[in-house]
Amino acid sequence: MLTNEEISERNGLLIEFISTINLGIHIIDLPHKPKMLSADYTRQLSGYVKNFHLILTKGTSDEVHLDIRLKPINNMDLEVLLPQILEWLVLYNHPKVYTLTLPENGMFVTGFNHHNKIMKTNPYPVFAKFNPIVYYELDRAESTQERFNEYDLIVK
After folding, report:
1. pLDDT tens, 140-151?
2. Where are any strands of DSSP class E within the chain?
C-alpha cells in the first residue's frame, strides 16, 4: 500500500502524463482512486491506476490494452505511446457517464449548497464550467434533475 507521499508523487506523475499527451482527458476522484473522463465529460475512460502504473483496459473488460509506467515523460516515450493511446480511445467502448448542465450557458452542476448550513436543509445546486458531478447511472442523474426542476437542467 502506498503512503500519502507516494500517492501524491504518483498523482503528480499521472497529471503530468495526461497533460503532456494533451488529448483533453480529465482526471477525477483524486487522490486515492483516480478516474479518467473524456474531453466532453460523457465517457469514463476504461482504465485505472495501480501503484505507479496507468493501466488502460479493453472497454468494460479487465483485459489490459496498455500498461504505462508513470515516470517523467520524454519525447521518445511519447512517440511510442501516443498512437497506442489514440487506438485505445477509438477502438474500445468506454462506459457512458452523465452530468447535469444548464442549457443557456452549458455550466455543469458541480456541487450543492444549503440555505440552512447548520442543519443542511433546503439544498440548491452550484454551477461551474469544470469538474462536474459525474453520475454513473442515468436514473440517479434523472432523479437529481427532477429534484431541482426549477433550474431546467439537462442530463448529458
Report:
1. 999 999 999 999
2. 26-28, 35-37, 44-45, 47-50, 53-57, 64-69, 100-101, 108-116, 121-128, 154-155
